[in-house]
Structures are given as structure tokens and as C-alpha cells.
Write a structure and sequence with these properties.
It is a single chain. The protein is mainly alpha-helical. The chain is built from five helices and no strands. Helix 1 runs antiparallel to helix 2 and helix 3 packs antiparallel against helix 4. The protein is elongated and about 55 Å long. The mean pLDDT is 95.
Length: 165
């Protein structure tokens, strides 16, 4: 595979990730509204601000690569968000819904972690250190968000749902 083909693949996958992030910025406010736990609401609101910064960071990457961020729809993110919306519409008790929201959010985080890890590695392979560094920043944020969600689940959300059941 030529260097040009790898760069084209990188751009295509970055467009997919850009689509995912923009979809997530639309889903997070709905998830925050649906959450009953104040800590979870705050986590979603904080992650929304972080995700908006990640979108800007991706726009920097596209400027560096002289490429357009549009033109691709991330069907994986679309599916994960549809799952979350379905969960929110099922009428779960508030404590159970919080558990389900954490699970739905972690599915998205794991998808993003896989995406950013692969993108960063490909950028490094192509010798695009500046792009790789920007992607690494976002990868670290996604990992931290996943850890925060885990801490919320272990720190009380799951127990409150268990006690309410």
C-alpha cells in the first residue's frame, strides 16, 4: 500500500471519527437530561464540553492534512446513540436508567478509544507526529472519561439501582 493510500485511509477514518464526535455532541445533552444522578448529569455535561474541544482538535488535524472533515457518516456511533435513545424511552426506573446510561456511554467511549488509538498509530506510521500528538490528547481524554464512568458506576450508581430494585 502506498503512502498516498495510507493517507487517504487516515483521512477517511478521521472523517468517520469527526462524524461520530458531532453526533455525540447532539446525544450528550439528552443523556444528561435523562440522568437522575447529579454526578452523572455533571459527567455528561463535562464530557459535552470536552467533546466540543475534541471536534475542534479534529478540525485542526484536517487543516494540517488539508482535508475536508465532512463527507462521512459514522454508522457505528449512530447505532450506539440509537441504542441509548431506545434505553431512554423504555420507562426504566430512574436508578436503573442511570446504570443503563453509564453502560451506553461506556460503549461509546470504548468505540472512541479504539478509533483514536488506531488513528494515532496510523498517523505515527505515516510520520505525521503533529497529527499523532493531537489524536493522543483526545485518546487520553476518552480513556479518562471511561474511568470516570466506571468510578460513578462503582461509586454508587449501581448500588442505588440494586437497592431500589
Amino acid at each position: 500500500m502506498s503512502e498516498q493510500a495510507l493517507k487517504a485511509l487516515l483521512i477517511e477514518e478521521l472523517q468517520d471519527t469527526y462524524s461520530a464526535e458531532t453526533q455525540i455532541t447532539q446525544a450528550l445533552p439528552k443523556m444528561a437530561d435523562a440522568a437522575s444522578s447529579q454526578e452523572l448529569k455533571q459527567a455528561f455535561q463535562t464530557h459535552l464540553q470536552e467533546t466540543q474541544g475534541q471536534v475542534k482538535r479534529l478540525e485542526q488535524v484536517f487543516q494540517i492534512l488539508q482535508a475536508d472533515p465532512g463527507g462521512n457518516t459514522c454508522e457505528a456511533a449512530q447505532g450506539l446513540i440509537e441504542e441509548a435513545e431506545e434505553i431512554m424511552s423504555q420507562g426504566h426506573p430512574p436508578e436503573v436508567l442511570d446504570v443503563a446510561l453509564v453502560m451506553a456511554a461506556q460503549k461509546v467511549e470504548h468505540y472512541e478509544i479504539a478509533s483514536y488509538g488506531a488513528l494515532r498509530t496510523l498517523a505515527e506510521t505515516c510520520g505525521m507526529t503533529d497529527v499523532a500528538n493531537l489524536l493522543e490528547q483526545t485518546l487520553n481524554e476518552e480513556k479518562a472519561t471511561d474511568q470516570k464512568l466506571n468510578q460513578l458506576a462503582e461509586g454508587g450508581i449501581n448500588q442505588r439501582a440494586f437497592k431500589a430494585a
